[in-house]
Every structure is written in structure tokens, then in C-alpha cells.
Write a structure and sequence with these properties.
Layout: H1 4-10, E1 16-17, H2 36-42, E2 46-47, H3 74-86, H4 97-110
Parallel strand pairs: 1-2
Helix pairs in contact: 3-4
Length: 112
């Protein structure tokens, strides 16, 4: 279902998809987006990946603030959110909507 053909089939009964965030940005550096967002948009689907969280445990290793997996890493989380916005997602699922809003505001300001 995550291929261009599969997404066209999904578009027959859905308006959007909520893929795991690694379908869009694998946990590797450099953060290079896959074709998932482009393929979904070509099929007419919105894309809202899940779940972006600010704890080191859930961030790609290159965005961690420390080796403490439970530590909240706001700077790394904002950077991750911005990577997804740059990849063209239409929205995100996050455990911290205030931080998501902060990242979106910062990202949109950088476009001006």
C-alpha cells in the first residue's frame, strides 16, 4: 500500500494517509526524504505521519540531545518536525502539539 500504485488504490476510498514517520524520513543521516509524500500527493492524498515525540528515545540518533533516552529534547524535536515540513507533509501527529505549533511557526517564518 505504500507504493505509488498502492497509494492510488488507497485514494479510491480515502482522502489521506497516516504513515509511520519512517516511511517518509528513514532514521539515517543525512535526512533524505523518500518518494512517499510525492507519490501520495500525486494520488490526491494528504499525508500526516505519526508520531513525532520530543524524547530522545523517539528521535533519530543524530537529533538526540543526550544519551538519556527518556530526556525531552526540544531542539532535536523541532529540527525533526521541520524536516517533515520540508518533505511536504500536510500535517503531523505529535504528542506535544504546542511544540509542533512552535516548529511550524518557525518553519513558515523561515520561508519568508
Amino acid at each position: 500500500m505504500a507504493t505509488a500504485i498502492g497509494l492510488k488504490e488507497v485514494a479510491e476510498y480515502a482522502d489521506g494517509v497516516g504513515p509511520s514517520k519512517t516511511y517518509i524520513l528513514p532514521n539515517t543521516q543525512p535526512a533524505t526524504a523518500t518518494s512517499f509524500v510525492r507519490d501520495a500527493h500525486t494520488a490526491g492524498l494528504k499525508v500526516h505521519p505519526y508520531t513525532l515525540r520530543p524524547e530522545n528515545e523517539f528521535l533519530p540518533n543524530y537529533l538526540d540531545c543526550s544519551n538519556n533516552s527518556a530526556e525531552r529534547c526540544e531542539t532535536g524535536a523541532i529540527q525533526e518536525y521541520e524536516l517533515f515540513f520540508k518533505a511536504g507533509v500536510d500535517g503531523i501527529f505529535t504528542d506535544d502539539p504546542g511544540l509542533g505549533r512552535k516548529a511550524l511557526t518557525r518553519y513558515t517564518a523561515s520561508l519568508k
